[in-house]
Amino acid sequence: MKVGIIADLASDDMRAYAEAWAVQKVLKEFGITPIAVTHEIENTEEVNQEASEEKIEEKKGFKAKLKGLFGTKEKAAPAVKKREISEFAKARFVICNGTKEVGHEKGIWQNMDHYIVTDPRMKEELEKEEHFYHPLYQVKNAAMLINQKIYHELARKPELAKDYMLVDVKNLDNKTKHFIEHMATERGLAIVEKRTNPSIGKAVAQYQERDIEGYIGYIRYASCVVTDTYITTVMAFLHEKDFVSLVHNEEAEEIKEVLSLVKLSDHMVDPSVDAKKETSYLIQNKGEFRTAVKTARGEIKKSLGMELKLEQFNLYVDCPTNILRSECCGCSACKEVCPTNAIEMVADQEGFLYPVVDKDKCIDCKLCAKQCVKRDNPQTISYEKSYPKILCAMNNNEEERMNSSSGGVFPVLADYAINVMHGYVVGVRYDENMNAVADIADNMEDVKAFYGAKYVKSDFSHVFPKIKELLSEGKFVLYSGLPCEAAGLKAYLRKPYDNLFVTEILCHASPSPKVFKKYLEYLNKKFKSEVVDFNFRDKSEGWIAEHNSLKITFKNKKVIKVNARKNNYYRCFAKDYIARPACGQCSFVYKNRVGDITMGDFWGIRHTDPSMYDDKGTSIIMVNTKKGDEVFGAVADRFNYKESDLQTAFKYNHKKPIVIKDARDEFFKKLDKAPINDLLESYNDLAKK
Ligand SMILES: Cc1cc2nc3c(=O)[nH]c(=O)nc-3n(C[C@H](O)[C@H](O)[C@H](O)COP(=O)(O)OP(=O)(O)OC[C@H]3O[C@@H](n4cnc5c(N)ncnc54)[C@H](O)[C@@H]3O)c2cc1C
Ligand code: SF4
Ligand code: SF4
Ligand code: SF4
What we know:
The chain is of the alpha/beta class. Among the domains are: 3-139, no CATH class; 149-289, Rossmann fold (3-Layer(aba) Sandwich); 316-371, Alpha-Beta Plaits; 513-578, no CATH class.
């Protein structure tokens, strides 16, 4: 992969050197040797003039420097021919590829796979030349990519015996001078100024232009740093110096942002009004600061790796939530809260939806990260005393119970929402193409389509805004869904609503919609008719796992019924071969609940309390909140129920997330290659029994 780092390396801008150096270090860590492309922001006319001797010498030195910086240090820069120097001096674009190749032909750099820029001013400049530099990616805060130890490879120790304060200030008005002199006197420090002509009386040395080694050396050995430039601010904190950033430069906004990122906003001061006690310029909370730098560094590196589409960075979601793909449960909260609609949920090769950000629309507000249920916002309930209450229950209405997967709790709660509260019910049904989709119903006839578990991940987030609208109008809404989806809804709403009643179903894993779709296509073909209903929990032969049937209905009225455990799709679901990777790190297991009420199968009830077992379905009900208690109290007489306890209820249900097996990953690698039924069957240990 050919990657060009574009920077104004011919100027005396230490930022350009430091940032380009940091980026090339990290690229080499990724196994990429980048190409440095010097693009001068200013003086375009000057560089196009006939080359003067001075200019030639300057460029010659610069070329050697580039080789030293980006190539292998041991090799000396090759001799440069006079003609070449002359062309080089005139060139606006200069290319340096390690120690191998130097030139300024457009042909050399025009066909790179990626162009990287760090300075926002340079980005602006280059965007005007879009046809040359494409795709162009800006690495923000690039100097933070490496730590002080790595910068020390560059540092040259200053020849200065005294303790000193390094001053890199562009805007030296009288108040600033006074401020600096006062600080130096208070600390008994000499002043080293980054200027060729020192303008502070007490300055004892000047940092020389175009000397990155000297610059880093002066930072490294300084007792204290005062600056109004972005790069010296970053270098000062990376070296954990006692430092202060002054507010009056055109880079003030960028400085403010980076200081806030590393929790050092109090180091930015206005010298005319804000002269603080000297101790306040020390980094006070080093632990917090170091964590912030480490996190920021990881995120910058990750964004760069993802931009270059490096395999190891496919591990992360392409969204500012910055979580691993293996953690993302697809709850959609990030997409739904984004104020600029910058996030889309896009299916990956396995068929699961993940957020993908449109960087042009993203305003970097970080709201998505704040609301992400897999970061600090899981939405799980902190139990009040005497909760959760655990019940084992059977709906007294046998027809409803038989049409439901477990003990028929959901139909009763739905009926309460519709007929008592005159509200709405959110659930999952099949659409006309047999996709499992969330929908909102306001009558029991429509609610019936929600009965029964559909063992496939549904498409649900489109209902979130509508739910919010109903809640804002004061309507009662019963939400029913998987726990991670319920968490997504709560995160999206961002405030509690009295008229929202959240129910969740116990869930150990949700299968890929792509696998289900392929399996349906296989059935359509095999039975020469379209599947119009797929009941995963037909209880005509019984409810427990051994008796449970799959009932598949076709458009031509044909119905097939098979023992569920032996069915290829069902067995792969039950064995977790077709689960979303995040189910292996599910945050919503056992007592970590999101809903006012949780519903599940009371597996093992025939052993623990045979009086509550008739093989037609018994439910676990977890009442998690007072609201859950109130609603259950209102419908309790519609159940045959008993109190139970967590230990009994979860004796045969999962208490921990599933284990993602290697076989699962193997399955998905073969998904697009093998016929679906053959593939599912090869993972079905009961197929031939
Ligand atoms: C993917 C999945 C995994 C499950 N894993 C377990 C488990 O490990 N242990 C356990 O005890 N129970 C599990 N269940 C729950 C169980 O199968 C029943 O759905 C639950 O007990 C409710 O049954 P019920 O008889 O009260 O009502 P039912 O009438 O069966 O109600 C079903 C409810 O589930 C909702 N629903 C159906 N399919 C989906 C879907 N794909 N996504 C979101 N919501 C859906 C419906 O909207 C309805 O609210 C799982 C369900 C699903 C969908
Ligand atoms: S940072 Fe803000 S604008 Fe960008 S994707 Fe996240 S929520 Fe949307
Ligand atoms: S877990 Fe939810 S909020 Fe977090 S990235 Fe995934 S979809 Fe977005
Ligand atoms: S196991 Fe957890 S993460 Fe996976 S679908 Fe169920 S609730 Fe969501």
